[in-house]
Amino acid sequence: MKQYLISWSPQAEETYLNTLSQILEKWTIKEAEDFEAKVESILEKLKTQKHLCPPSCKQKSLRRCVIAPQTSLVYQIKNDIIELVAFFDNRSDHLY
Description:
By secondary structure, the protein is α+β, with helices and mostly antiparallel strands. The chain has one domain: YaeB-like fold, CATH 3.30.2310. It has helices at residues 10-26, 29-46, and strands at residues 5-8, 63-68, 71-78, 81-89. It has a four-stranded mixed sheet. The radius of gyration is 13 Å and the shape is globular. The model has no long low-confidence stretch (mean pLDDT 95).
């Protein structure tokens, strides 16, 4: 089975860390660990299923994975690389 490489953009790294910080401010380490586990699970699936998540409604070149009711991840496919673009709050006025 083909494996795709996962690449994090600087924006993805920043928004991921910001999301974790917000979870830790409002909740507990358990919720942060649960979020990390959900992200890791999705990334493991993306390594073999690059079209796992549907196209974004706002930007068709991106795909959007809902991680939790509050948070999504957007990524783009570049040949054999899955580039993580950003994490964002679903309740916000976002670009994705």
